[in-house]
Design goal:
The protein is low in regular secondary structure. It is 10% helix and 10% strand. The chain has a single domain, classed as Herpes Virus-1.
Length: 62
């Protein structure tokens, strides 16, 4: 099962790209770096740890 790569920060609404930096908890709550730091790495929804979200490379056809 793949992670849902959400396109916006759940706190401030900032745009997030699939290959850009973001923080995520085990329930896939997703936040930009600035918001995750402001929340001291703790998810406000579940209380879980916010960790770096894996980056997904853009596929190219060729």
């Amino acid at each position: 099962m793949a992670l849902e790569m959400r396109a916006v920060c759940e706190r401030c609404g900032a745009a997030l790209t699939a290959d850009g930096p973001a923080r995520i908890c085990s329930f896939e709550c997703t936040f930009c770096i600035a918001c995750a730091e402001a929340m001291k790495g703790v998810c406000p929804n579940c209380g879980g740890e916010l960790v770096p979200r894996p980056r997904r490379r853009t596929r190219t056809t060729g």
